[in-house]
Amino acid sequence: MNHYTSPSESARNILTANDRGGYTIPTSGLYPYQWNWDSAIAALGFAEFDIDRAWVELETLFSGQWADGMVPHILFHNPDPGYFPGPDVWGGIGPIPSSGITQPPLAATMARRILDMDAEAGAKRMRALFPAMLAWHRWIMKWRLDDYGAVCTTHPWEAGRDNAPDWDSAMAGIDASDVGEYQRRDTSHVNSDDRPTKYDYDRYIKLVQIGREVRWDQQKLLTLNPFRVADPTMSFTTLRAARDLLAISAQLGLEADGLHADIARLDAGAQSLWNDTLDAFDARDAHSGEWAQSVSNASYLCWYAGIESPQMLERLKSILTTVPHPIPSYDPNLPKFDERRYWRGPTWAFMNMLAGFGLAGMGHGVEAEALRLKTARLIAGHGFAEYFDPITGGPAGGNSFTWTAAVWLHWAG
Ligand code: 9WN
């Protein structure tokens, strides 16, 4: 008799298969290392069936924290020639070979959810991790804020939304003519039409070369790095993380000096990303002050950060009725929408989960549930893909993907 595998069983199998012992890779082949925000989501998935393993995921992530508090976007635990750029290109300066940039800070928020799932199992682990999480928060406050208090991304990979239209004008200002020869690996694993272009990659690598050249000295990079964009992803997730750190510190009686003031500053910064002309939260070039004119899935993370917006709610209602699948990474009514190309149109399950957390937390239960159901239908119908075409639901990028499986286990399924 054939054994029927339920989606939840498949999701657990994916997490287990992507487990490399203490950390989880996003998908085998394409992404053979530990990624920062992927890991925070993976922890949430593991918490549904193995709470100890969930804490281990976060502990391994923080084992790669640099002395200055930065938590890298990739930890290269075991060399793998299948990914480019690897540790030798990045020249990270932490205790574990790593990249030199960070990623949107989800760990504190996911740790709080995991703590809530089992406070007894989690209190000790949370106490031990808390100072490291606070140090990361303080590093972001020190090096990534613009004059308004919005949080900047210093590389498209730092925002985690690699080729989003948000960066187009900042990317155009990067001279990558001397980047040299290199061999991409991503396009040998997945369809190149679904990935960033060579134009993008030249600039990604050029920015890595600039950082590496000064051994990731943040003070120097403030003037040397041509790419600095105040970003809704970084701003909303940092604000949310700060609120969660404050709540955890109150719950466990931990020192958290300065968090109240940081939250006020980050709140003002996040609000400053409202673009009146666009009538949405937008990205703003920190060097030129120019708006990107981009309504992305990150624009819908305002509630996740504890920020209300009737206009964004109207937009969301319209998306929910006009787009077959959940929030796309770029507004289908804008000219740069490209339904297959990565962060320029496709829908990402975990971004919808974050928006859903925010909506539910701020009393928009109907919209949160609509988003959850759409995400559940998408995954149930099209599998655990990295991301999906928001019009047809077609799966794209890597498959058996960790964060899509985790989203199913914790939220959608
Ligand atoms: C570069 C792992 C990561 C995600 C990012 C996603 C993609 C990497 C890449 O994959 O980026 O960091 O090589 O394309 O854009 O959000 O963390 O899943």
Automatic annotation (TrEMBL):
PANTHER family: MANNOSYL-OLIGOSACCHARIDE GLUCOSIDASE (PTHR10412). Residues 31-404 form the Mannosylglycerate hydrolase MGH1-like glycoside hydrolase domain. The lineage of its organism: Bacteria, Pseudomonadati, Pseudomonadota, Alphaproteobacteria, Rhodobacterales. GO terms for molecular function: Glc3Man9GlcNAc2 oligosaccharide glucosidase activity. It comes from Ruegeria meonggei. This is Mannosylglycerate hydrolase MGH1-like glycoside hydrolase domain-containing protein. Coiled coil: none annotated. The keyword DNA-binding does not apply. Pfam families: MGH1-like_GH. Keywords: Glycosidase, Hydrolase. Belongs to the glycosyl hydrolase 63 family. One of its GO terms (biological process) is protein N-linked glycosylation.
